[in-house]
Every structure is written in structure tokens, then in C-alpha cells.
Amino acid sequence: MNLESSILDSISTGILVLSGDLTVTALNASGQALLDTSEARCLGVHAEKLLQHSHEWLGSLTQVLESDSPHASRSVALTLHSGQEIHVDVIITPFPHADGSTGLLVELMAVDRLLRISRDGSQQYAQETSRAVIRGLAHEIKNPLGGVRGAAQLLARELADEDLAEYTRIIIREADRLRDLVDRLLGPNRQLALQPLNIHEVLEHVRSLISAEADNRVTIIRDYDPSLPEFPCDRAQLIQAVLNIMRNAVQAATDPEQCQIILRSRSQRQFTVGTQLHRLVCRVDIIDNGPGIPADLQPAVFAPMVTGRADGTGLGLSIAQSIIHLHGGSLECESYPGETRFTFYLPMETPHA
Question: Quick one: 52 and 133 in the same domain?
């Protein structure tokens, strides 16, 4: 890779370079991820062939060439060959080639990417705020709870009547249950035990657990990218995060035999988590065909104690998000009737403490 290509690939904005006849001469890594293609497929290809329904796109490129002046468009809808529609801000700038011809430099910035970065920041701030409140409440709850439990133990030693002693055992049991609930509210409280791990080992382990719990009545489809490398993770905690998400899917299903879960893994280049740009991340989608999450619950789906089930604690997704954040990643949710998709991103290039 030459210096020019290295510089282009380090830019988080999609960069497309076109010759005077509108054929592709360069496409950086962010552009490849955005257009869901590779540079090898695009080099020498006419810009018209990069997209479906490319009339408006082609018109903008031609206009800049003819006027020899830059052009910017906001929130332009582009349809990829996969059928996916993306919305991007486009800046087209003409530049002179050494031979006197004019080429085009096209900058593509995904609008949904900017919205996601903003949303991730807001969610992380909200979660940190709620956890600060919970830690304060936990301290206030656990101290008197320990006193109640200790008093019940002392009282149990003084009671000769076994029937009365049963009441103290109930007090101790319930105090322990409340203590465990408070601990779960606080989420993971130990440092990550990082070791090189293939994410598919985690997914396969959870798949076998869910299949056993559901008596093999749930259909689980695997769509893995076998080229994903190992990267530093805490195996036990990631298993817990994926297990919480998949259990939610099974519990939401009205009929386990009709429940279908898709596990999909992919790599993604030049991806921003929070405010940090990562060269390479692992993307995992967990998709189910259940009834979906009620619209009024979706904005707070990762908040503690938020649940749509009468018997739920609302802690599973909150804990899953905390574990993913500890790994330096992010967890997102998109849901509507018939499909709920949880997606998490984990940086692969460096370990996280």
C-alpha cells in the first residue's frame, strides 16, 4: 500500500476519486464500507454502475464537471446494489490532473452515522448518570439490609420454637435476594479478564445454551464471517451479554417453535464508537422474528428496571450494554413487529481495560 492509499484509508469520511470520464480511480476503506463494495470491484468502473437508480447521482457529477465548481448536497438518498438505502451528505470537488483533464473528488458522510455517534454519546451519558444514582441508592440500601440480616441471624439463635425460626429464615433469604438484586443493578463490578478469543466461540457457546434451555424448539441460524481474527475479550462476560440478549428473544416469543434467531458476524472498517475512530471492528447482529419491543419502551430499552414483561427485572439488557461498553464497544437496538435486531460493535485492533 502506498502513502497516498494509506492516508485515504485513515480518513473516516468516504472518499471516491473519479477521472474526467467518471470512472473510479480510487475508493478508500470508509467509502468501501459505506457503499458495501471493495476498491478492486470499482476501479475502472463508471460511477453510474456504483448504485441503483443513479440518475440524480450522475447528474450531480456531470454538473460539477461542466461548471468546474464544487457542489454540496445534504441527506442524499443512495440505493446500493444490495437494495439498502443510505442517506449521505455529498461534497463533489473538481481538481486538475497532470495531463490537463479534470477529475472529481467525492466526499461521502453518512447522515445516520452522525446521528448514531450523537445517540451513542447521549445514551452513554444517560447510563452513567443513572448508574451514579443507583450506586448511591445501593449504598443506602445495602447498609440497613445488612443490619436487618444480622439481626435476623441473632434472633434465630435465641428462638427455640422451630416454627418461629422459619420466619427468621425467610427474612434472611429475602435480605439475600435484595442484596443480589442490588448487585445486579450495579452491573459488572470486576475488571475484564482479557484473552485472545474468536467471537464465534462465544456465539456457539450461547447458541448451545439457548437450544438446551428451549428443548431445541428454537431455530437458530448462523451467518458467520470465518475470516474474523481473534481479539482480546473477556469470554465469561461476553457470554453473559449475548445470553441476556438471546434469552430476551426467546422469552418474548409467543411460541418457541415459531421463534427464529439469526446470529450474524461481520468485520467493519473505519467505524466510530463513541468519539473514537477504530480501524477495524467486529459487528455482531442478533436478529429475532418476535413481536418486537413496544415503541414507548424502545428509547429506554437499555435502562435498568425497564421491561415489557410482568415477570421481568429489566436488568438483562442494561447489563449486556455495560459489558459491551467495558470492552470499548457499543450496543444498539432496532425493533418493529416481526423483527428485533440487537447489534454490537467490538474494536479488534487493541485491547481494552
Answer: no
Query: What is the CATH number for 26?
Result: 3.30.450.20
| C-alpha distances out from residue 218 to 200, 206, 252, 258, 303, Å | 19, 13, 12, 7, 27
CA distance 209 to 261: 14
43's grid cell: 476501479
Q: Which SS3 state, helix, strand or coil, does residue 284 take?
A: strand
Bridge partners of 347, per DSSP, are 281
Query: Residue 338 corresponds to which cell in the numbers above?
Result: 416481526
Cα–Cα distance between 48 and 57 in angstroms, integer? 8
DSSP secondary structure code for residue 230 in this structure: P
What percentage of residues in the chain have a pLDDT greater than 90?
28
pTM above threshold 0.70: no
Cα–Cα distance for residue pair 91/72, rounded to 1 Å = 4
Domain count, the chain: 3
Q: Are residues 14 and 62 in the same domain?
A: yes
